[in-house]
Automatic annotation (TrEMBL):
Lineage: Bacteria, Pseudomonadati, Pseudomonadota, Alphaproteobacteria, Hyphomicrobiales
Pfam families in UniProt: SQS_PSY
CDD domains with a match to the protein in the record: Trans_IPPS_HH
BP GO annotations: carotenoid biosynthetic process
Protein name listed in UniProt: Phytoene/squalene synthase family protein
Keyword Transferase in record: yes
Keyword Transferase: yes
């Protein structure tokens, strides 16, 4: 079969990335609908590669396989930056994104380093060590997203890393029980010692307890601090990009609120934000927003190397960007995404009423 013309091949890759995100990350897919078209497609390409990377390591059968997956991902990043990506939609889209937006190779390599820590089964002595992990697996993605949206200042990048780290801490707080049943532990070990919780005992039989609930609450308080710090960074983004990122922030922060409403018990069940609630939060994200945080606040120390990787590299080779849709067209995208969320809500309601 003859090769597709380049423009058709690129469109096919973008379509495949879009489908992967819609299936694997409905919250991000829905919030992403608020982004301008060119930014949205680049974001989906980036996230498709990040999700592929996460799945390859996560689904590996054993430690050796996980380390092999990390090695293969490191090679795939190198090939993408060399202009010879692996023959897969996510890799080709990723190569286009990092070239177009001058994303330093250190950022995706930091992400893979975080996955390597997972492959090692690493545990974290204290909050600072956990923040180093969060900076790699999520702060790096936040920084790459900021670059896609055209924000390259150190302050904007610091706030993007704050948002990524906040989301990762929320994930950890939500998934304490699920992770423990898979033999994983992310809670700071010094916190556990202070609460008289033995890590091995907990992993052998994960159960909710007042002591564990206090640790989850403490972790979510740190996430909330980072969400608040990130708010100023959202306002530093181009106006057309702010509603989508604010929506993603609100939806993730809501996960923490649901965990809190459940008595900080993230062992007995997994907190989920309903489609109806997402609808309300996305609508809220499109309204004017008052910022109380400081754009120039110090960066999270664990994320400083990510910011330095960007600010120390010239980026004069950025390709010209396609014209963005006018600001007034945001309303049409809002209507589209609200319709999407409403249909998700209706399917959820049907699923609850349908016989099992």
């Amino acid at each position: 079969m003859p090769a597709l013309p380049p423009e058709f091949a690129a469109a096919a890759d973008r379509s495949a990335c879009r489908a992967a995100i819609r299936a694997g990350s409905r919250s991000f897919f829905a919030a992403g609908q608020l982004l301008p078209g060119d930014v949205r497609e680049a974001a989906y390409g980036l996230y498709a590669f990040c999700r592929l990377s996460d799945d390859l390591v996560d689904e590996a059968a054993g430690s050796a396989d996980r380390h092999d997956a990390v090695a293969r991902l490191t090679d795939r990043i190198g090939r993408a930056y060399a202009g010879q990506p692996v023959d897969a939609p996510a890799d080709r889209a990723f190569a286009e994104v990092v070239t177009t937006h001058a994303i330093p190779e250190a950022l995706p390599r930091a992400l893979i380093e975080g996955f390597a820590w997972d492959a090692d089964g690493r545990r974290y002595a204290d909050l600072e060590a956990l923040q180093a992990y969060a900076a790699r697996v999520a702060g790096s993605v936040g920084a790459m997203m900021a670059l896609i949206m055209g924000a390259r200042s150190a302050d904007a990048l610091a706030r993007a890393c704050d948002l990524g780290a906040a989301m990762q801490l929320t994930n950890i707080a939500r998934d304490v029980g699920e992770d423990a049943r898979m033999g994983r532990l992310y809670l700071p070990l010094n916190w556990m010692a202070e609460a008289d919780l033995d890590p091995e005992t907990f992993l052998a039989d994960p159960r909710p307890s007042p002591a564990l609930a206090a640790l989850v609450a403490r972790l979510l308080a740190e996430a909330d601090r980072l969400y608040a710090s990130a708010n100023a960074g959202i306002e530093a983004l181009p106006p057309r990009c702010r509603p989508a990122i604010r929506a993603a922030s609100l939806i993730y922060a809501e996960i923490g609120r649901i965990v809190a409403a459940n008595g900080f018990d993230s062992v007995s069940g997994r907190a989920r934000v309903t489609a109806g609630r997402k609808l309300a939060l996305i609508a809220r994200a499109t309204r004017p927003h008052r910022v109380g945080s400081d754009l120039g606040a110090p960066a999270l120390p664990a994320a400083a190397f990510l910011i330095e990787a960007v600010t120390s590299e010239p980026h004069g080779g950025l390709r010209p960007r396609a014209a963005l849709r006018p600001w007034w067209d945001l309303g049409g995208r809002v209507v589209h995404v609200l319709d999407l969320i409403e249909r998700m809500r209706e399917r959820e309601a049907f699923g609850r009423s349908a016989p099992s």
